[in-house]
Specification:
The protein is α+β, with helices and mostly antiparallel strands. 19% of the residues lie in helices and 31% in strands. The N and C termini lie far apart (58 Å). InterPro entries: Cupin_2 (IPR013096), GDO-like (IPR047183), RmlC-like_jellyroll (IPR014710), RmlC_Cupin_sf (IPR011051).
Length: 360
């Protein structure tokens, strides 16, 4: 019997070696490597402090200039576990970009979809021009640059502006679909300011043609979003007050690959812990508080950025004043693939035990 078992083991090992030589893999041996009972996430939550990052960006403002051939002056938030994708999550990349007073950046377009969130702006003639239309940047406004659309930036004020870039290039690169096209001169006919927002309103002449792009070129004003947050009667224990920036053409997410949201955590709010199969990157618009992720507390304040990977328990706590969070999630991708799910923590009153505090 022992001899038979030994012979069988030798024969199986020989089969494994021959399969490897034929560039095949035995499912019975490796199935746990590619099918798991719960999501296998290969990167950790992380937090980038505004006070640590902005001095570096301002130093770059002195060293990296358009005259020296640098079209963009931005710094990526790089998760320590994702150094080769230069991204915060496996699907979403974020960066802070600085455009100094009087600077302009030439037009280009790319396969990656992008949004801009004005982190610090004094208003005035600061804008991203998309498909020939200027989208002005007041502080905390959200601007869309959908995939494949021409865009350029200009700061015609005496003040610097810093905005948060959010792009889906990690996902585009995973799909091996990245493309980039530089522009020269005027790449699109000019459109009047507010053209898209006005055209996508509730009324239009019967003979008017439909909106020309598949995805809208839009500016979502923070003044309107803030008012909507405070006017909302929908608040729940998982999110506080949460509103999504909606595509007015199809009532869907902000971009096909990125859902953008704003969140109001009223004074001393403590949300219930939940986890989901989507990854989410947060930017702190205002206030102070913390987010507990898998038992680790991440204290945050205005300007900070943090990432919650998929299937991580997380809950938010605001301090003594109202706090506002902006977030970008790959939830639309997970939904369209039929892979999105979420669950709330059912034990301990819906809250995690804090085991430690984040240290960078």
């Amino acid at each position: 019997m022992k001899e038979d078992l030994a012979e069988q083991a030798d024969a199986l090992e020989t089969l494994h070696q021959e399969l490897e030589a034929a560039y095949m893999a035995p499912t019975w041996k490796y199935i746990s490597s590619f099918i798991s009972k719960t999501p296998k996430v290969n990167y950790r939550p992380w937090l980038w402090k505004w006070d640590d990052v902005i001095p570096l960006l301002m130093r770059a403002g002195q060293l990296i200039t358009p005259e020296r051939g640098a079209e963009r002056r931005s710094m990526e938030h790089v998760n320590p576990d994702l150094p080769f994708s230069y991204s915060a999550s496996h699907t979403i990349a974020t960066a802070f970009q600085l455009v100094r007073a009087g600077e302009q950046a030439p037009a280009h377009r790319h396969a990656a979809g992008a949004i801009r969130f004005a982190a610090r702006s004094h208003g005035g003639a600061v804008y991203t021009k998309v498909q020939g239309e200027r989208l002005m940047m007041e502080e905390n406004d959200l601007l869309l640059t959908p995939s494949g659309m021409w865009h350029e930036h200009a700061n015609e004020t005496p003040h610097d502006i810093v905005w948060l870039d959010v792009l889906d290039f990690p996902l585009v690169n995973l799909l091996q679909a990245s493309m980039f096209w530089p522009g020269e001169g005027q790449v699109c006919p000019d459109r009047p300011d507010g053209w898209s927002n006005n055209r996508l309103g509730l009324f239009r002449p019967p003979a008017d043609t439909p909106y020309p792009e598949a995805h809208p070129v839009l500016r979502y004003a923070w003044t309107e979003m803030r008012e909507a947050l405070h006017a909302s009667t929908h608040s729940d224990e998982r999110h506080g007050v949460l509103l999504e920036y909606v595509n007015p053409i199809n009532s869907g997410p902000t971009l096909p690959t990125i859902s953008c949201r704003a969140q109001l955590l009223r004074s001393h709010t403590h949300t219930r812990a939940l986890r989901a199969t989507a990854s989410t990157v947060y930017f702190v618009i205002g206030g102070e508080g913390s987010t507990i992720i898998n038992g680790v507390e991440f204290p945050w304040r205005r300007g900070d950025v943090f990432v919650v990977p998929p299937w991580c328990w997380h809950e938010h706590r605001s301090a003594g004043t109202d706090s506002y969070l902006f977030s970008a999630s790959d939830q639309p991708v997970m939904r369209i693939l039929g892979l999105y799910c979420e669950e709330a923590l059912g034990s301990d009153g819906g809250h995690q035990k804090v085991e430690s505090t984040f240290q960078s």
